[in-house]
Amino acid sequence: MSKEVFQRPWNGTRRQGYDCDAQPVHREGPPIGGPSCQTLYVLEASVKYHQHLWVVLLAAIIAGCSTGPFYKPSSSIGSYSTVNPACPGAQEVIEFSPEKQPWILLRVYATPPERYNSKGTELRIHFWFQYLKGEPRPSLFFLTDEEQKLIKERSSKDYVATTSKPTVTVVLPNGNRQEITIPAFEKSFDAKRELVDWWGNGVLISPDSLNSFTVIFPDIYVNGEKITVPPIHFQKAEDHYAPVLNC
Q1: What is residue 41's three-state secondary structure?
Q2: Which of 165, 178, 158 is nearest to 220 (CA)?
Q3: Helix locations, 13-99, DSSP H
Q4: How far apart are CA 102 and CA 166, in angstroms?
Q5: Which of 39, 75, 102, 180 is buried deepest, with most CB atoms within 10 A?
Q6: SS3 (DSSP) at 188
């Protein structure tokens, strides 16, 4: 029985890889098994392609997604978060809570015209309730009877918010100050039903895109307890974050 095999003609050099242009020669004996050189070449090319693809994907993850321009808040106290706390993104929200009611969060952020369909530079304020915030959690996967009772008790209460005046003071880098009215601050209101829209409640500060500014809040109370809100400085910035498919 004869079988054609490939023998590389000697031309003074030896190439790496698979030479599919080699001249066939005849040999006697049983067939030689294994993939053809064309198959090996295709497999090698496929491996190199997928290695390149993984490198590109890894580079994209490391580079992350750009947040675009946003206002980075800073203050002497408070904690920082994204607009949607369940998703990655710019740490553009600053949160404050009353000491005895830590499950009440007053969340503040500002938006430039390029973000969230703002009409200019806007200040956005809303309340968010995390009824188990500050409580020890035996498990993150299920609620105990005591936790369910606590949630029911706290969520059934009314939360009346009041302020010492209906305006905030905006201080520009040149020292100019202006009073901006917050409509919800003009009267007492139910914090569970008003100022609860994360993406709305925008109050125009300037029709222009400001680079930086500081906001001074009035005294804010919920059920008679004061929420300490020091002056908040906002600085335009950009950042990157790792993308998440379900956000």
Answers
A1: helix
A2: 165
A3: 37-63
A4: 24
A5: 75
A6: coil
Nearest to 167 by CA among 118, 220, 209, 128: 220
User: Of the candidates 95, 104, 226, which has an alpha carbon nearest to the alpha carbon of residue 159?
Assistant: 104
Query: What are the pLDDT digits (tens) for 13-56?
Result: 444 444 555 444 445 555 555 555 555 445 555 555 455 545 54
pTM for the structure as a whole:
0.72
Q: 151: exposed, middle or buried (C-beta count within 10 Å: 0-12, 13-18, 19+)?
A: middle
Rounded distance, CA 73 to CA 79, Å? 10
Selection from 169, 220, 213 nearest residue 195 by Cα: 220
> What's the CA dihedral at 186, 189, 191, 192 to 10 degrees?
-140
State the Cα–Cα distance between residues 54 and 158, nearest whole angstrom.
53
Three-state SS for 100-160 is CCCCEEEEEEEECCCCCCCCCEEEEEEEEECCCCCCCCCCCCCCCHHHHHHHHHHHCCCCE
Q: From the centroid of its chain, how far is CA 134?
A: 23
Do residues 58 and 224 make contact, with C-beta atoms less than 8 angstroms apart?
A: no
Q: Interior CA angle at 159 toward 93 and 181, to 5°?
A: 55
CB proximity list for 103: less than 8 A, separation 6 or greater? 97, 129, 130, 131, 132, 133, 134, 154
**How many Å apart are CA 236 and CA 217, to the nearest integer?**
20
How much of the chain, in percent, has pLDDT values that exceed 70? 70
Contact 110, 168 (CB under 8 A): no
